[in-house]
């Protein structure tokens, strides 16, 4: 139950941490935003402005009395779907091209700019025309509407004329037959024959009357095809999103792509990047984050940097695990270990400032140089005077240097020396006795070791020191490296007390070594050699 509640409380923190990590990739986010703005501006500048104008036509059928309520309904006489197809056809486009002063070959281009729609439940056709200028758009819409009405009236008039001509062809023979029949009636004497002829005459007269009425009705038809209900007007603004909207849309899309790229970069980036990631990988708190300075001194003076070291020292002093033994091992993941040396020196000075007897042990026996870089004072406190090792190893020896830490006071340094067998020296009884001096009241021993992933020297000292502080740059160290360090330290019997973070550029290029004899070849320190030498030192 408590784990579920804790997991729910950690979810906002994890989300906040991920958002912060994404926003750390400012170059990708800013690059995506800039690319989107440029793309939007390019599309807005390169796209041709288009204007749209519309004209509406009410379609009507040819009729004698448009106000008559009896008979077939007008909407039943008109198939509006067929009329829409006719309005968008080639014949209307050719007439529109003629009205616009264009050739018949341009009818296809004009037809491609036209869209004919029919609002639901109406007999209205809407002609929408798109052109590069407001005038051309309005002229095109008006031309197509007039061309459709003209074409439809021409077709209706032609149909009526053909029908009248057909009726007249039927009427002329009937009129000739009637004239011949009248002549015959005048010559007949018999009443029976005359009655038959008169009946035939009445039949012919009826047919002639019917055809004459049909012709009269066709001539009386109102062939008006329709009316323009909405005239085309010049549009005020161009269609489309416009330059400002395109730039804004490009910026939004570019920002989204930039954030996506930053998120993918965060997912596939092996570096820790943030303090929370370092804390989760080491399963230990971040004790402090050192501010970035142009040139970092080995001993920090008053200021933000010195206060940060004091804060780290006080957090360690109140740590229960450290307070029990007061032994501290300072290491870096990899590299030359220059920042770890700076942190170890300043933490020792802070412990001395609190009134403790502080001893700094330089266990970096491969590249020792603290004795050259720290300001030494003559003599040493009697409590730190050691004995020469009985086994004849040159380190740690009896050489202690008193270091002047300014206002923080003084602390003692056991400088490192080059030795032929690093593994045997670090696991010797003399090294154990030196570190065990932290058992004295009000005493602290800080041990500086080489990078833990470069050499196994730090692992040889973990079981003697227990508490480890990892100094790293979260932007360059991998999460897997930090997890590996925690596993190695836990396996060696130690515990990671916390991490001290610093920013890139703190290590000096081409670290200068102290002038002295050439390096003595040393055998590589492996896990087997550490175990073997630990057993041998214990037997002694």
Automatic annotation (TrEMBL):
<feature type="region of interest" description="Disordered">
    <location>
        <begin position="502"/>
        <end position="540"/>
    </location>
</feature>
<keyword id="KW-0812">Transmembrane</keyword>
<keyword id="KW-0472">Membrane</keyword>
<protein>
    <recommendedName>
        <fullName>Lipopolysaccharide biosynthesis protein</fullName>
    </recommendedName>
</protein>
<feature type="transmembrane region" description="Helical">
    <location>
        <begin position="241"/>
        <end position="264"/>
    </location>
</feature>
<dbReference type="InterPro" id="IPR027417">
    <property type="entry name" value="P-loop_NTPase"/>
</dbReference>
<dbReference type="InterPro" id="IPR050445">
    <property type="entry name" value="Bact_polysacc_biosynth/exp"/>
</dbReference>
<feature type="compositionally biased region" description="Polar residues">
    <location>
        <begin position="528"/>
        <end position="540"/>
    </location>
</feature>
<feature type="coiled-coil region">
    <location>
        <begin position="171"/>
        <end position="221"/>
    </location>
</feature>
<keyword id="KW-0175">Coiled coil</keyword>
<feature type="transmembrane region" description="Helical">
    <location>
        <begin position="27"/>
        <end position="45"/>
    </location>
</feature>
<keyword id="KW-1133">Transmembrane helix</keyword>
<feature type="compositionally biased region" description="Basic residues">
    <location>
        <begin position="505"/>
        <end position="514"/>
    </location>
</feature>
């Amino acid at each position: 139950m408590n784990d579920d509640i804790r997991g729910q409380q950690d979810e906002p923190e994890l989300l906040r941490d991920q958002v912060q990590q994404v926003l750390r990739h400012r170059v990708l986010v800013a690059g995506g935003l800039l690319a989107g703005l440029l793309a939007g501006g390019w599309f807005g500048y390169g796209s041709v402005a288009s204007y749209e104008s519309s004209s509406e036509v009410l379609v009507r059928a040819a009729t004698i009395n448009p106000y008559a309520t009896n008979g077939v309904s007008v909407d039943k006489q008109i198939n509006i779907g067929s009329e829409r197809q006719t309005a968008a056809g080639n014949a209307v486009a050719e007439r529109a091209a003629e009205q616009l002063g264009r050739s018949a070959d341009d009818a296809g281009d004009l037809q491609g700019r036209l869209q004919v729609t029919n609002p639901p439940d109406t007999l209205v056709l809407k002609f929408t025309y798109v052109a590069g200028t407001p005038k051309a758009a309005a002229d095109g819409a008006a031309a197509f509407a007039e061309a459709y009405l003209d074409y439809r009236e021409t077709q209706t008039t032609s149909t009526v004329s053909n029908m009248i001509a057909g009726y007249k062809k039927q009427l002329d023979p009937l009129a000739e037959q009637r004239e011949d029949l009248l002549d015959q009636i005048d010559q007949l004497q018999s009443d029976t024959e005359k009655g038959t002829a008169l009946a035939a005459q009445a039949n012919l007269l009826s047919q002639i009357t019917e055809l004459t009425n049909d012709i009269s009705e066709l001539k009386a038809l109102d062939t008006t095809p329709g009316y323009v209900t909405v005239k085309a007007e010049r549009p005020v603004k161009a269609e489309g999103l416009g330059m400002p909207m395109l730039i804004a849309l490009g910026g939004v899309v570019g920002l989204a792509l930039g954030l996506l790229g930053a998120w993918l970069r965060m997912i596939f980036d092996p570096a820790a990047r943030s303090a929370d990631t370092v804390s989760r990988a080491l399963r230990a708190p971040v004790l402090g984050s050192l501010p970035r300075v142009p040139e970092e001194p080995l001993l920090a003076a008053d200021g933000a940097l010195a206060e940060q070291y004091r804060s780290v020292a006080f957090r360690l002093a109140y740590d229960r695990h450290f307070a029990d033994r007061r032994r501290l091992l300072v290491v870096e993941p990899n590299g030359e270990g220059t920042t770890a040396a700076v942190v170890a020196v300043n933490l020792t000075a802070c412990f001395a400032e609190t009134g403790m007897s502080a001893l700094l042990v330089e266990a970096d026996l491969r590249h020792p140089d603290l004795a050259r870089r720290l300001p030494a004072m003559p003599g040493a406190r009697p409590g730190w005077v050691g004995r020469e090792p009985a086994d004849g190893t040159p380190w740690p020896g009896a050489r202690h240097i008193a270091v002047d830490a300014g206002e923080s006071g003084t602390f003692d340094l056991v400088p490192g020396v080059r030795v032929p067998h690093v593994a045997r020296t670090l696991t010797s009884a003399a090294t154990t006795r030196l570190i065990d001096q932290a058992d004295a009241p009000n005493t602290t021993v800080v041990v500086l070791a080489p990078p833990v992933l470069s050499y196994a020297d730090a692992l040889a000292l973990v079981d003697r020191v227990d508490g480890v502080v990892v100094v790293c740059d979260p932007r360059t160290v991998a999460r897997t490296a930090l997890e590996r360090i925690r596993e190695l330290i836990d396996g060696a019997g130690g515990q990671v007390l916390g991490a001290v973070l610093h920013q890139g550029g703190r290590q000096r290029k081409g670290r200068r070594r102290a002038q002295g004899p050439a390096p003595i070849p040393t055998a590589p320190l492996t896990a087997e050699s550490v175990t073997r030498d630990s057993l041998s030192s214990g037997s002694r």
